[in-house]
Specification:
Strand content: 5-15%
Number of strands: 9
Order of helices and strands: EEEEEEEHHEHEHHHHHHHHHHHHHHHH
Shape: globular
CATH architecture of the domain at 6-186: Sandwich
CATH topology of the domain at 6-186: Jelly Rolls
Structural class: alpha+beta
Number of helices: 19
CATH class of the domain at 6-186: Mainly Beta
Largest sheet: 9 strands, mixed
Distance between the termini: 33 Å
Radius of gyration: 22 Å
């Protein structure tokens, strides 16, 4: 068990589980040990130099470096050339993600923060950009007063201070995204591409699905025993216990920011039923889920899109009927909404348009059939809802960047290679 990586606390402290974000100063004068982050965070490097290993890739740290760490990523400062002094902002990713999609995305376009922040986790600011980011962090520090900001629900009824912080936090994310897009070539990693290091983050962003060791084994081209061993050796938890740990974190966010019933939360988060979610939550947090909600949530759901219970039913319907002749019009009619409303819901729930989401589901199923059966590509096209091989191939190239035939060939060659590149199923992320 010597390889177990320390797991960060689920929230800021026993007293701050209902907070949205918190600001810290930190100084490192020697390398750290790896840590699994359950909370998202931003680092702004003010002084010092060193090397950060994030998800198996190494990045140079120097003044003006801005780092974004997402839930269930692993970080480690592996080298400190001179003491590193930095600002640290810890926040609930799911809560902020929901706020951006619900209240700030007026155009209802696709917003995939997970993918965008994962692509450019480390950016190197120019002098002007670094000065701007430094001021932004200081504004957050001054408004927070050294403590955590209440959840958005609390801020609605307690004045404008917390709303100011919420806006500044979102401003920080937007500017990080913009600078990262412009400077993406600068943050080139030093080491080899990631492989199994993505397993934990993949699990977290697919909790609403029926995750099994078999699913992970197929996705990462590893044996089930290898996946299980990696999880135990990395976290010290078995696969089922790790799933419960992750789901509790998601449960906290939903209890704070939505008014879903326990039955609905059980379905959304992959629990067996409401009694299962209540049992797991109470065992981990030491407080019943409904008591936690009554204690910390001040008003109902802030997310307008969640006023309708149709949202998850729509996603589930597409999942179950992907092979049929689905069109935006037919699905919209079934749920008595407009096509525009349908796409708004899907952009919020799965960060894809109707067409992209349907093809995403179909291509994932095609990958399974290519991997598990000897059916012809023409047969697989028919089984996954495509009229011909050409259409299947066109969409397969979009999502897998290779043809179905090449995919089957590469999977066959790499079936015993634990370091093979991650395959299908990475496109969608839960909010």
């Amino acid at each position: 068990m010597s390889n177990i990586i320390k797991m960060q606390d689920l929230y800021f402290s026993d007293y701050d589980s209902h907070k949205l974000c918190q600001f810290y100063y930190e100084v490192l004068d020697k390398p750290t040990t790896p840590i699994i982050h359950q909370m998202s965070r931003f680092w702004l490097i003010n002084k010092g130099k060193g090397i950060l290993k994030l998800q198996g890739k190494e990045y140079e740290l120097k003044p003006g470096t801005l780092v974004s760490v997402l839930p269930w990523q692993v970080s480690d400062i592996v080298q400190v050339d001179s003491p590193i002094q930095y600002f640290l902002l810890v926040y609930y990713f799911d809560g902020v993600n929901d706020i951006i999609k619900s209240l700030y995305n007026l155009g209802h376009g696709p917003l995939d923060l997970i993918e965008d922040l994962s692509k450019n986790p480390v950016i190197y600011c120019s002098a002007a950009q670094a000065k701007y980011m430094h001021q932004l962090f200081l504004q957050l520090r001054d408004e927070l007063g050294g403590g955590a900001v209440p959840s958005l629900e609390t801020s609605v009824s307690s004045g404008f201070g917390s709303l100011f912080i919420t806006n500044k936090l979102i401003e920080l994310i937007i500017n990080l995204w913009r600078i990262g897009k412009a400077n993406s070539s600068q943050a080139a990693e030093i080491s080899t591409p990631m492989d199994r290091t993505e397993i934990l983050q993949y699990m977290y962003h697919h909790l609403s699905e029926k995750l099994t060791l078999k699913t992970l084994a197929k996705t990462f081209y590893m044996s089930e025993s290898s996946v299980s061993l990696y999880i135990v050796q990395t976290t010290g938890l078995t696969f089922p216990n790790l799933l419960n740990e992750m789901r509790v974190g998601k449960t906290i966010t939903y209890l704070l920011y939505t008014d879903f019933t326990m039955d609905e939360l059980a379905e959304i988060l992959g629990f067996v039923d409401s009694s299962h979610i209540c049992k797991v939550f109470a065992a981990r947090i030491g407080l019943k889920a409904n008591e936690f909600r009554k204690t910390y949530q001040k008003i109902g759901s802030i997310c307008n899109i969640r006023d309708s219970r149709k949202a998850y039913s729509i996603v589930e319907y597409i999942y179950k009927n992907y092979s049929g002749n689905l069109t935006p019009q037919s699905v919209a009619r079934k749920f008595d909404i407009t096509v525009r409303k349908l796409n708004t819901i899907l952009f919020y729930q799965v960060e894809k348009s109707f067409s992209d989401f349907l093809n995403y589901v179909r291509i994932n199923r095609a990958c399974e059939l290519l991997l598990d059966t000897d059916k012809t590509i023409a047969e697989i096209a028919s089984l996954t809802g495509y009229n011909n091989v050409k259409t299947l191939t066109r969409n397969f190239l979009k999502f897998q960047v290779m043809t179905p035939g090449k995919f089957r060939e590469s999977v066959s060659k790499n079936s015993g290679d634990a370091s093979a590149p991650v395959g299908g199923g990475r496109g969608m992320s839960r909010p």
